[in-house]
Amino acid sequence: MKKIILLLVLAFSAFISQAQNATLKAGDPAPDFKLKNVDGKEISFASYPKAKGFIVVFTCNTCPYAVAYEQRIIELDKKFRSQGYPVIAINPNDPEASKADSFDKMQDLAKEKKYPFPYLYDAGQKVTDQYGAKHTPHLFIVSKSAKGNVIEYVGAIDNDPEGTKAEKTKYAEEAIAALQSNKKPAVTQTKEIGCTVKRKAKA
Fold this sequence. Notes:
This protein is of the alpha+beta class and 203 residues long. Helices cover 31% and strands 19% of the residues.
């Protein structure tokens, strides 16, 4: 009987944990945050008072998919920051589970690649869990509204994770183009493709 009760408790706990970490979807409020950037300064949505919205991307140093998308993320920022949609990159991996994703290593990578956007350290993975980010990269496009910051699109940057297609569907760019025309994106969710977020083993 005790074993049955224990199993039920564990199953219920797993269900609650999964529910708490459900991925946000279009129409949901976008949680604000205040996280340390690689330059030591804290960054939040309020750091961009003139922004119309944000390209929030959970990415990391180590995942091959994140590496493949690195230049495309840089290009998104270069193209859309001046149009009011800056990139904010957040590393969701726990450094104990992925040592090459430590804050020091993040600083090294950002310097080496000359990141034009902030690259934030999510201590305790709190923001990762709030957004329900599951993979790297995992993209959330956010717009400002009278009711606050709202999720408009969630998923992949495009449909070409390997970077080999001559023609590709640029989900992120299409979503922002729609928002700039005062329309809702035609596609609000796609399946993100990447490595799972790395978490340290529970004691």
